[in-house]
Structure formats: structure tokens, C-alpha cells
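A reminder before we start the practical. When you read a complex entry, don't treat the lines as separate problems. The point of joint prediction is that each chain is placed relative to the others, so the output describes one connected object in space. Small molecules and nucleic acid strands, if listed, are placed in the same frame. In the example below there are two entries. Take a minute to note the order of the lines before looking further.
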Amino acid sequence: EADIYQTPRYLVIGTGKKITLECSQTMGHDKMYWYQQDPGMELHLIHYSYGVNSTEKGDLSSESTVSRIRTEHFPLTLESARPSHTSQYLCASSRPGTPAGTLHFGNGTRLTVT
Amino acid sequence: TQLLEQSPQFLSIQEGENLTVYCNSSSVFSSLQWYRQEPGEGPVLLVTVVTGGEVKKLKRLTFQFGDARKDSSLHITAAQPGDTGLYLCAGGNTGNQFYFGTGTSLTVIP
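Here is the predicted structure of the whole assembly.
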């Protein structure tokens, strides 16, 4: 049962368009993350948030931006899409735990920029 | 950046064989997690290990955390086609930051 939802699942868009990838979770988790993943490869952290009005950049430089106005919602925006942005984008939230939390992932948005 | 290297990167085996996947780092982590990802889906947590030397078993899967908490291994006994997927290790720190390994793509041939 999915408690973290990403839309759209697939998106094909032309160069220069502005896009927003949606991510919502119903678990009340404070921490949320965006990862970028090429098919069958490792995950790269591009953004994360510790809670409302908190956003940080991850290890992989990204031209995208994020916002966290509500606990359950963590959208990612690309102002001007380019072919280099073609990838899968995975959203996750973290259940607190001592000493380790647990990441819950959505099913991802596969973005293709033509 | 805390880099985790997984080996092998790709593995194709026959049903019934055993295999081991390794996850190595030069950094110490407070926890080490293993996830499995199937095509078109997000990764799903398999196990979390937190104590150096800890061993956990999940049916045919055995997970071990190195004594120094820098490395981990995943051993699968009698692999089945349902085990096919991308296996990812992730090192965690006390700030709930997770650093993912380079991934191991496993194919089990019936």
C-alpha cells in the first residue's frame, strides 16, 4: 500500500518548458527527499527537507528547486527543462528511528526531455 | 560525499545458486540499510543493521554489518527468479542522511 504518491508517473516534454513534479505523503513524516536515478543505477540526492519551510540542496548539483509549504507536500520544479534533465526522479520520506530512520519511496516520475 | 561501492555491479545466475553482494566504504556509518528495487518502482527496504558485526536473516537472505561499520554484505541462498532486481545499500548517519551505494543488478534465470 503506497503512502507516498508521485505524479505524473511518466512525462515527455519539450526543451524549455517549465515542469513541476508532485510528491505527497500521508504518513506525517517531517523529512522528505528527492533523488535522481538513471535506469539501473545508484540514487543521487538532489534536495531534502527537515520540515515545513526547510529545504536544502543535496550532493548532486541540480537546476531544480523545491518547496515545503505543507508537511505532506514536497514538489520539485524545473523552470526550463533540458535534455540533460532526462532521468527518473524519486521522492522519499523518512520515518524517524533511533539510530536509523527508514526511507519510504514513491514509484518515481520518469522524465524525458526532447 | 560518503561513497559506497557495491560489487559486483551486474550479476546473472541460475535459479538455485548462491550469491553474495558487497558494499564497501571508507566512512563509518551509524546504520546500514539494504533496499531492493524492481523496474518502474521505488526502492523497498529489506533490512537495517546498526551494530558492528551484526548479522540479520530474512528467509533466504543474510545481511552482515562489518565490525568497523564501514562495510556490509548480502548473501542470498538458493536464488529464485523473484529475487531479480536492483539491490542498493545505503549508509545512514545520525542526521537521517542516507548515502546510497552504486547498486547491484541481479538477474536470476529460471
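Discuss with your neighbour: The mean pLDDT of chain A is 91. What might explain this?
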